[in-house]
Amino acid sequence: MDASVSLVAATAALAVMGFTWLASLAVRDASLADIAWGMVFVLIGWACYLAGDRSGAMLLAACLVTVWGLRLAIHIGRRNLGHGEDKRYQAMRAKRPKSFWITSLFTVFILQGALALIISAPFQSLGAQDSESIGILSWLGAAVFVVGFCFEAIGGHGAAEHRVVSGFADAIEQDRFSLRQLIQDALRIDEPRTILESPNEGHLPIGRGLDHIAISFEGR
User: Fold this and answer.
1) Whole-angstrom Cα distance, residue 69 to residue 62?
2) In terms of CB atoms within 10 Å, which of 42, 78, 112, 207 comes out highest?
3) Widest distance between CA atoms in the chain
4) What are phi and psi of 146, to 5 degrees?
5) Cβ distance 205 to 147 under 8 Å?
6) How many of the other CB atoms lie within 10 Å of CB of 207?
């Protein structure tokens, strides 16, 4: 993995979450972090493409994650905006009324940005690849992504879609934060169900699809 690509990706994640934190202070609503969750991956994807060798596979991956991230941000935004701050963040604010404005920067926004950076490791690796062609595994990965995206979009009205981001506040509120558990939740490895059993589990095939795109280059 190219350190320069990872540095640019980290800067993009920090910029998105830092700006969102400032916006949350203006409106007193830390729930904006949930909306920014999808957009972090979009910015990381394009940062890796621009900072890397701009391979065809990285461009494909950046476009796919843009579709996913925008849909997720719009969906959560339509559901959350106008309904006040999420009750989990309200509980965190009530627990630390005087310092929540600054503690939220680390316990909500930077924390989510850091997790997004960990999950997006395949992007950072793919951004450093120098191959110019897109292999069969790349297109296979794109197909798997599309299947997962369709299932996620169909079942996107449920609450499971942003379980990870809401889990941050819930865990911190109860003083039982576990990075390992949050990563497990993000990767859906603690619930081995198929997408047919739960439409909202579309995140798993989406992740698998992007992994296929990265693997097709790492094997060259």
Assistant:
1) 10
2) 112
3) 55
4) -60, -40
5) yes
6) 18
